[in-house]
Design a protein that fits this description.
Layout lengths: L32 H10 L12 H22 L3 H14 L4 H13 L3 H14 L4 H13 L3 H14 L22 H14 L2 H15 L7 H15 L2 H11 L9 H14 L3 H14 L4 H12 L8 H14 L4 H13 L3 H14 L4 H13 L3 H14 L4 H13 L4 H14 L4 H16 L27
């Protein structure tokens, strides 16, 4: 198999139809009828003269079939422990029983024992390597183990092998064809895989196709998919679509989420739209039900800190952020936002203490170091500011605000115009549409060429708290 790439899932001419196995987690997988037949053949060898099977082989076959029957009955009664024991007993009489292997794997998957499920699915594939259903189920198990590379490879195999993979080859991602037989479980898994990789457009396409299939097929993940789509649309800036998804599941949120979780997401969408009043209303609904909800208290604190809100109040911001930290003192982001609120009130010592707590918990966050640089800059500790900005750049060299602040720092410190120009130029490359950067860069270049006097250096710019969050895991190449 060629090295996979997550934007190149394709289909192939189907092989013979494999037994259906890939049940969702809420439904016990059924034993494929022709898998049983295959298992029967495996335990009924004949000699070259076609002599009848020995009594021992007949007894082994009878024992296997009896344990398989006991396993099916136990499954139907919802007794998975006895079911898996029965199937394992069947495998003791016939280690190559496809029915036994697939059922043990299916139950292990239901019980979220993914290492065991993977082991048994792999054993099935050793006997039946062209079983697309098993490859699809194996891909899901790898996905739940966060082994994205192997999950991708397994899903790719499933798309090659399924007997009508529900798609037409159309790069970069083939979308299920509405007129063809469809497999929502497979595309649900592929959607999650793309989401994990950060390939939001492809994840959206896969999830949307599952919802179209689900109108006619029995698949119980619709509300979970709507939640995932709501998050994806929010990340894509499609706020109306995001709100529509969350509104559809508000009265029946997918397990284990509660109504408060959906209101939190609705509030966050409104916040992204700068509709701070509606955001505050949504967050306050959550706090009314759960007064110690750390994340919502954090968001309310940030809302009261925002310059653009009509209800800005730094003292209330500090109160909400302090309550958030009382509920969860380990959250580095809450410590950081508390520092920002103290900075707004020019309480530099308290801001420094809060930033130190944030860095102690997450020392690899470039946003934290940028804000520490801003603090040092504003109290004229230029050498410490330079050190903080340098740390931010080492972690993430693509933050325009850090380069702009570095340029301003060079201007303010010994009038290092050449170094300032280099820093502003880098900031302009990263944010070419920012007029503040381009105007300052033009002023410095003109002053350097003509010897004209410059106005005072601009003050430092801070960053949005979530603008440079940790990047998504890169897809395989």
């Amino acid at each position: 198999m060629h090295d996979p790439h997550p934007h190149a899932l394709v289909t192939h001419t189907p092989h013979a139809a494999p037994p259906h196995l890939n049940g969702n987690a809420a439904v016990h997988p059924s034993t494929p009828n022709h898998a049983s037949a295959a298992a029967t053949q495996l335990v009924s060898p004949t000699n070259p003269n076609n002599a009848p099977a020995s009594t021992i082989h007949k007894l082994a076959l009878a024992n296997e079939q009896t344990w398989l029957l006991i396993g099916r009955v136990a499954e139907q009664m919802g007794d998975l422990e006895h079911a898996i024991t029965a199937y394992e007993n069947a495998l003791r009489h016939n280690p190559l029983s496809l029915s036994g292997l697939t059922q043990v794997a299916g139950i292990a998957r239901i019980k979220e024992n993914y290492p065991k499920a993977i082991e048994y699915f792999q054993r099935v594939l050793q006997l039946q390597e062209d079983n697309g259903e098993v490859w699809s189920a194996l891909g899901h198990c790898y996905l739940m183990q966060d082994d994205l590379q192997k999950a991708y490879s397994a899903y790719q195999q499933a798309l090659y092998l399924l007997p009508n993979p529900k798609v037409r080859p159309r790069p970069p991602l083939s979308v299920p064809c509405s007129s063809a037989q469809e497999d929502p479980k497979l595309w649900y898994g592929i959607g999650i895989l793309y989401d994990r990789y950060g390939s939001l457009d492809h994840a959206e396409e896969a999830f949307a196709s599952v919802l179209k299939m689900d109108k006619e097929l029995d698949f119980d993940k619709a509300n979970e998919i709507l939640f995932r789509l709501g998050i994806i649309y929010k990340q894509q800036g499609k706020y109306d679509e995001s709100l529509s998804c969350f509104d559809r599941i508000l009265r029946n949120p997918p397990s284990p989420l509660a109504h408060a979780d959906i209101w939190f997401q609705i509030g966050h969408v409104y916040e992204q739209q700068n509709d701070y009043l509606r955001a505050k209303d949504a967050y306050e609904r959550v706090v009314a039900d759960n007064p110690t909800h750390a994340k919502v208290l954090q968001q309310l604190g940030w809302l009261y800190h925002q310059d653009g809100s009509s209800f800005q109040n730094q003292e209330l911001a500090i109160q909400y952020l302090t309550k958030s930290l009382e509920a969860d003192p380990s959250d580095a982001q809450s410590w950081y936002l508390l520092g920002r609120a103290y900075m707004a009130g020019q309480k530099y010592n308290k801001a420094y203490e809060a930033y130190q707590q944030a860095v102690y918990r997450d020392g690899r966050n470039p946003t934290f170091w940028c804000s520490i640089g801003v603090l040092y800059f504003q109290i004229n500790q230029f050498r410490d500011a330079l050190d903080a900005y340098s740390r931010a750049i080492r972690i993430n060299p693509y933050i325009s605000e850090v380069w702009f602040d570095l340029g301003s720092l060079y201007e303010s410190c010994n009038n290092q115009i050449s170094d300032a120009i280099d820093a502003y130029a880098r900031a302009a490359e990263l944010d070419p549409g920012n007029p503040v950067i381009t105007q300052r860069l033009h002023l410095l270049k003109n002053a350097q060429a003509t010897g004209s006097q410059l106005p005072a250096a601009p003050g430092p710019q801070d960053v949005h708290p979530t603008a440079y969050a940790n990047p998504t895991v890169p897809p395989p190449g």
